[in-house]
């Protein structure tokens, strides 16, 4: 990267996931100048994961012949957005919790680095360059779990405890036990894991993934159709609740399960018709358009413009409670 010309108009976005670390060099208009992907060394610890991200940025710069002016990172886990440190993480990541990712990358690359939770980055990507254009938007990511994020008045909202938008762990959706140990959370109906599990429970046939359930639903399997109908209904009710509380007119749904939007959309539309926000203001619930690029582009958006959306006071130790949900 040392031989590349520097450009403040070009930034790097990096998505550190459980299996892959992806990145792109992004111009000010959202155009992708270069892409790269490497395996995430999740079992080798935080230092190895940070080095993989740094090498990816250098690879991108060499490929495009442009050194980015800054680096944004969307990372799996609970992130303190002020410091860029990982506050908590799933046990699939060795020595990730407590790792000073932002500081390590700043030192390694000699660049400005900002780090966000990957679900927040997803929403930033969609609001900057996808289907979430607007100043007040709810983001819902349906993946292995269910995550959420909020942009209010044009700024990412963290809340005083870092948990703003955490819609996946809201109760009232039945009696199933959630991955967090509590009962009836949205995640028990709408995550990819729960869709596969509920189909297997209904049919007695073990199944590998929600994608397979979607294929069976499209082939006319009524049990599969019912599972997606219940998921779509739950997502829509959650979005209506959020819209009623904070008056957002738009919700963007992403993650792997959103690839089956054709199966979710009928029940989403039915709930929006039967149970709209009490204000009477229209609520749109739409799929994200950036798909696998959303987190990378959202990470780039972190540093492509001045986003002063942080809480006015630092998070106290143990205070940041955002769940890993993508």
UniProtKB/TrEMBL annotation:
Superkingdom to which the source organism belongs: Bacteria
InterPro entries: ATPase_NBD, ROK, ROK_cs
Signal peptide stretch: none
Family indicated by similarity: Belongs to the ROK (NagC/XylR) family.
Designated name of the protein: ROK family protein
Organism field: Microbacterium psychrotolerans
Biological classification of the source: Bacteria, Bacillati, Actinomycetota, Actinomycetes, Micrococcales
């Amino acid at each position: 990267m040392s031989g590349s010309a520097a450009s403040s108009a070009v930034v790097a976005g990096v998505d550190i996931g459980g299996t892959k670390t992806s990145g792109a060099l992004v111009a000010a208009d959202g155009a992708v100048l270069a892409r790269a992907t490497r395996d995430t060394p999740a079992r080798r610890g935080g230092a190895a994961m940070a080095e993989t991200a740094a090498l990816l940025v250098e690879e991108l710069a060499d490929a495009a012949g442009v050194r980015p002016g800054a680096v944004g990172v969307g990372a799996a886990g609970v992130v303190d957005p002020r410091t860029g440190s990982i506050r908590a993480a799933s046990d699939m990541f060795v020595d990730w919790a407590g790792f000073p990712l932002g500081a390590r990358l700043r030192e390694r690359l000699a660049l400005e680095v900002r780090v966000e939770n990957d679900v927040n980055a997803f929403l930033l990507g969609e609001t900057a360059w996808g289907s979430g254009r607007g100043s007040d938007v709810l983001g819902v990511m349906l993946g292995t779990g269910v995550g959420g994020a909020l942009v209010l008045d044009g700024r990412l909202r963290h809340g005083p405890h870092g948990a703003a938008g955490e819609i996946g762990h809201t109760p009232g959706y039945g009696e199933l036990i959630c991955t967090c140990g509590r009962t009836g959370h949205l995640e028990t109906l709408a995550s990819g894991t729960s869709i596969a599990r509920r189909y297997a429970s209904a049919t007695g046939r073990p199944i590998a993934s929600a994608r397979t359930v979607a294929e069976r639903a499209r082939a006319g399997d009524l049990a599969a159709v019912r599972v997606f109908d219940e998921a779509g209904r739950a997502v829509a009710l959650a979005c209506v609740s959020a819209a009623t509380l904070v008056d957002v007119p738009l919700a963007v749904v992403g993650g792997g399960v959103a690839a089956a939007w054709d199966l979710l959309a009928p029940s989403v539309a039915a709930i929006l018709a039967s149970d709209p926000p009490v204000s009477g203001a229209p609520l749109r619930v739409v799929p994200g358009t950036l798909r696998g690029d959303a987190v990378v582009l959202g990470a780039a958006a972190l540093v492509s413009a001045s986003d002063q959306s942080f809480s006015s006071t630092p998070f106290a130790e143990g205070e940041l409670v955002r769940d890993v949900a993508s």
